[in-house]
Amino acid sequence: MTPAETAQRLPYARLAAEIRTLLADDSVHVPERIVQPLPGGGSLFVMPAHDSRIAMTKLITFTPSNAGTGRPTIQGDVVVFDIATGERRLVLDGPTVTARRTAAVSLLAAQLLAPNTEGPLLIVGAGAQGRAHLEAFVDGLGVREVMIASRSETSANALADHARGLGLKSCVVADPGAALAQCPLIVTCTPANAVVLRGTPRDDAFIAAVGAFTPGMVELDPALCRHCAEHGLVVVDTPEAIHEAGDLLQAGLDVSAFATLRRVLMDAPAANRRPVLFKSCGWAGWDLAAARLAISA
Fold first, then answer.
1. Fewest 10 Å CB contacts: which of 91, 237, 248, 250?
2. Is the pLDDT of residue 236 over 60?
3. Which CATH number goes with the domain that contains 22?
4. What is the pTM of this model?
């Protein structure tokens, strides 16, 4: 499928609902993903998963050096098979699945955990994930105002224009840390090669940090992470974050002590624990949820 055809099958609110359903499905099996380092700093990801009906594998490359070149940093496909017959049912566009399922996971976390969903929304990083999170939070939370920060002024302005095209009030900000005082919803989705967000979040803040998915990557200032752990609530997407959540690991935090998104669904978090930091590292289960939704469309 083309990127547009893949996106059409994966509306954000419905994908978030499918992810919630998947987390309660005991037939889901997700092996550890294979990450093969490549010459030049890139990586090859092989991410299989299955439930009782379908099996899928996401096969993608991640090439950080493509940033700013016009070539995507993530390329590849998601191949979906029928378990009963072994038949290949779908081939979805990998970057589109990655962007939309990541944003849908953040949306689900915000629906479950955010103390204040009215916005404004602060997005740090104006690439594919910034656009996907903007669209997801509009679709699933009804956000009407967004502030955008990016090291690329061109990208920031383009995302702000896209937001206005969706009917939102939008602006570009130079210092995302200064915008924390105005924004209860924050998403960081950068290449994660340096700290991009410093400062103290509001007591009613929800932060989704999605850019750093290896121990060596970082977006959030360690002091910000420690503040959320001490005064609020930290939730990780899956148990695998114990060795992937660069922001938390570099802050010296015990990642194993934090609840996962599945645990949040099973046991309501303490209502007085805020601000909330949701650390997302990625999981083939999210791709399986996308495959389940796409195949039912």
1. 91
2. yes
3. 3.30.1780.10
4. 0.94
